[in-house]
Design a protein that fits this description.
The chain is mostly beta strands. Helix content is 0%, strand content 57%. The protein has a single domain (2-97), classed as Hypothetical Protein Tm1070, Chain: A (Sandwich), CATH 2.60.290. The chain is globular, with a radius of gyration of 13 Å. The protein starts with a strand and ends with a strand.
Length: 99
């Protein structure tokens, strides 16, 4: 799955009901030529709350960060959505690999 995001608002990478229960790897590439950004990656449910996978993870301009240990979560219609927030208004490419 490939996403291109920009701005500082929370962006859903996976919404509840997408039924992606396991993620093998996520790659974050800051495609901006000059600005560093940090990312917050978390799962959230209206009834169950917000839980951070990564908070304040710095991605330098033109660099890629890979979370390669994988994780699973309840992504059914009653489960969690996966969100990302950027600290600066840059463009970020996100690649999610499933097992």
């Amino acid at each position: 799955m490939f996403k291109n995001i920009s701005g500082t608002a929370a962006t859903a990478l996976l919404t509840a009901g997408d039924n992606v229960s396991k993620i093998k790897e996520i790659r974050f590439t800051n495609t901006h030529a000059g600005f560093v950004t940090s990312i917050d990656l978390y799962v959230e449910s209206n009834s169950l709350g917000k839980f951070y996978i990564a908070k304040g993870l710095v991605v330098c301009a033109g660099n890629t960060i890979v979370l390669e240990n994988g994780f699973g979560f309840d992504n059914t219609t009653t489960g969690y959505s996966l969100y990302i927030e950027l600290s600066a208004n840059v463009t970020m490419d996100v690649i999610i690999l499933k097992p």
